[in-house]
Write the structure tokens for this entry.
Amino acid sequence: MSQTVTLTIDGRQVQAEAGTTLLEAARSVNIQIPHLCSNEELAPYGACRMCMVEIRQGQRTRLVASCIYEVEEGLEVQTVTERVLNVRRLVIELLLARNPTHPTLLKMAADLGIEKTRFEVEVKGCILCGLCVRTCREVVGVSAIGFEGRGTSRRVTTPFNEAPPDCIACGACATVCPVGVIPLKDKAGIRTIWKTDYPLQRCESCGRIIAPVKQLEYFAKITNQPLSHFTEHCVHCR
Amino acid sequence: MQEKIAHIIGKYHHDKGFLVPILQDVQKEFNYLPKEALTTVGALLQVPLSRIYEIATFYRAFSLTPRGKHQMSLCVGTACHVRGAPIIQDGIERVLGVKAGQTTADLEFTFETVNCLGACALGPILVVDGEYQGQMTLSKANKLLKKLGKKVATDEED
Ligand code: SF4
Ligand code: FES
Ligand code: FES
């Protein structure tokens, strides 16, 4: 049973299903809120803080992350106020201090009138949005990678920084990363990811590369089909 | 190792929700968290290794490397800091020949710093093998080290 609530976003009345987020409600009426760590396929997370908006409750207003804040009846939301822009500028500058060169971040910064960060740059590349880790866990379902440590030394890695036992070499992490910092290479029938080599399977009919063997084995396992089901033909020659 | 871990997990009814206390018990048993122990916990609880590694590296109370027989934690929180913790830290690091967060090569001592133990009135505080020692001074620290079998070169150095 879904219940509908009515709220206002930037002065517009918006209907949304209870339990959904402000970001989703805004998107449904084409109000764009910048965001980096939220993805429709994944559970709300709220790590990057780019999506901050201002809400009014009675006399008071406060800042919330729109990708994790749920819609409420009668809520008044402002997505572009001086206060909102200020925190977004701060956030993007902090992210630029970790990654000062990626076009996605530079574009977001430029939209906020920022050219470069005021903070000391310490290039890490990764902005810790967690998209890779969560995709591997929630979508792929193998949970091969995770975070290590915390605070300034927090980073994404494989358990013990070794070849990840659960990885199926699907490459979803590298694809989803908004700043492209996870290396993935396909060469001579081998995929290299997380510093580990995985053989790629060729289609038994036409010889085209289908996917890493481990990934197909995983498909076979979760669908309860023989492996040959995935290797005899590929999408091209089926 | 397998058996001991199975026993610990049994105490928590194989409930993944108790992962942190389970790891605490495992660490108590083996003095640190050996890799095989974490793999075993993961297999028995059906929790992905990446998840366990995440937790084991998040909390400072967990160690993935062997710890010394004696554990010394010096508080360097604000109150203890102004009361002279840095001098004590210097002294201990010099005597043990390791930096905070490290273990001596002979696996006798692990020395680390912590941030406020919530007993500021007694600061500076040094916790030695779980015992809180208040109003610490360099010479008191040296005496403690000596008692635990460490050769301390100069005793009069404070
Ligand atoms: S590696 Fe990429 S996807 Fe993963 S947390 Fe870092 S920035 Fe996000
Ligand atoms: S998109 Fe909301 S915190 Fe990242
Ligand atoms: S600062 Fe050391 S106990 Fe509070």
Q: What stands out?
A: Helices of chain A lie at 22-28, 82-98, 103-111, 131-140, 172-176, 213-223, 228-231.
